[in-house]
Design brief:
Distance between the termini: 62 Å
Number of strands: 5
Order of helices and strands: HEEHHHEEHE
Number of helices: 5
Radius of gyration: 18 Å
Shape: globular
Structural class: alpha+beta
Oligomer: single chain
Strand order of the largest sheet: 3-4-2-1-5
Largest sheet: 5 strands, mixed
Strand content: 15-25%
Length: 171
C-alpha cells in the first residue's frame, strides 16, 4: 500500500512539473507585456484581488511604501485604467493577458453603467472597486481576477472574499 501511495505521489509531482514550467513561462511573458501598459515596476508592486458578492476590489501597492515614485505611478495608472474601463476599453488587459482572457469579453460587452468602478488612494498605492447588479458580470469579474492572479504569479495575491453591503453606485 505504501508503494502505491509513493508511486502516485511521484506521478503527481511529475505531472505538475510541466505545468509549473508553463506557468513560469506565461508569467514571464505577461510581465514583459505588462511593461507596455503599466508604468510602474511589476516586481516592485503587488496586485491584490479580492472578490465580493457584487464584484471585487483590485488593489496595487508598492512593496516598499516609502518608494514615492512607484506609489505615484500606481495611482496614475489606476486612475487612467478606471477611465478607460468605464468607456468599455479593456485594451490594456487584452494586450497583456490576451484577447481570450477569461471574463474580458463579457466586461467589454457590458453596457455603460452596468459596472461601477470606484477609485481610492490606499497606503502605498491605490485600488479600484468594481460593482455590478448583473450576476453574469460578477462571474466575469471573478474569472478576470482569477486570470490576473494566475498570470501575475508572485506579484499578485488573492485577498479575502468579503461581502459588500453597499449599493451599486451610479456613475
Amino acid at each position: 500500500m505504501k508503494i502505491v501511495a509513493f508511486s502516485l505521489s511521484l506521478l503527481a509531482a511529475a505531472l505538475s512539473l510541466p505545468a509549473t514550467a508553463a506557468d513560469a513561462q506565461r508569467q514571464a511573458e505577461v510581465a514583459k507585456l505588462g511593461a507596455d501598459v503599466m508604468p510602474f515596476d511589476l516586481k516592485a508592486t503587488t496586485h491584490v484581488f479580492s472578490k465580493t458578492a457584487n464584484g471585487g476590489t483590485q488593489r496595487v501597492v508598492a512593496k516598499n511604501a516609502a518608494d514615492a515614485q512607484q506609489v505615484k505611478l500606481v495611482r496614475e495608472h489606476l486612475r487612467e485604467i478606471r477611465a478607460q474601463f468605464l468607456k468599455g476599453d479593456y485594451s490594456g488587459p487584452g494586450h497583456i493577458h490576451g484577447a481570450d482572457m477569461p471574463g474580458l469579453a463579457e466586461l467589454q460587452a457590458a453596457k455603460s453603467g452596468q459596472v461601477s468602478i470606484d477609485y481610492k488612494d490606499v497606503k502605498a498605492g491605490a485600488e479600484l472597486t468594481y460593482r455590478t447588479a448583473d450576476t453574469k458580470l460578477v462571474v466575469a469579474l471573478h474569472r478576470w481576477f482569477d486570470a490576473q492572479l494566475s498570470d501575475h504569479g508572485a506579484d499578485a495575491t488573492a485577498g479575502h472574499m468579503h461581502h459588500d453591503h453597499g449599493a451599486m453606485k451610479k456613475q
